[in-house]
Design brief:
Helix content is 27%, strand content 24%. The chain is α/β, with parallel strands linked by helices. Pfam families: Glyoxalase.
Length: 153
């Protein structure tokens, strides 16, 4: 009887179902899938993001003329969605950030496209140098959404 009890206790202790259940306690962290930006003119916004950031456009499943999807590599996707009624005033604290190899080279792109940019405090044409050595600039897309570009590695 003791052997049977020991066998039953052993089976319960080493049960694969319990091991599977225990593993669910350590779930993988969530990952970003996409960011959706609501825009007034899809064609204008699509051209802006494609030309300024050189983002690869990817197929979108709706085919309704109201969506443009871009790949952000491992970071996920950027979805532009037609339908915003008017441009709104957006706070700079709420922004999308893209990293580039060189902020100085990117600033030249902004200048060539006549896109105004500023540093964090708001000085037009200036670049912020953060305490960690990262350079950054801020500017708005065609709907007034704030964008940051930095050279963080």
């Amino acid at each position: 009887m003791k052997i049977i009890t020991l066998l039953i206790v052993s089976l319960i202790a080493f049960n694969p179902i319990q091991k599977c259940m225990a593993q669910t306690d350590k779930e993988s962290p969530s990952v970003l899938n996409h960011i959706a930006v609501y825009v007034t003119d899809l064609n204008v916004a699509t051209d802006f993001y494609k030309s300024v950031f050189n983002l690869p456009q990817i197929p979108e499943p709706f085919h309704d003329g109201k969506h443009t999807w871009f790949s952000l590599g491992n970071a996920g996707q950027l979805h532009l969605i037609q339908g915003a009624k008017t441009s709104e005033v957006h706070d700079k604290n709420e922004h999308l950030c893209f990293s580039v190899p060189s902020v100085d080279a990117f600033v030249n792109t902004l200048k060539a496209k006549n896109i105004k940019f500023e540093d964090w405090p708001g000085k037009e044409g200036a670049v912020t140098l953060r305490v960690d050595g990262v350079k950054q600039v801020y500017f708005k897309d065609t709907d007034g959404h704030w964008l940051e570009v930095n050279d963080a590695k």
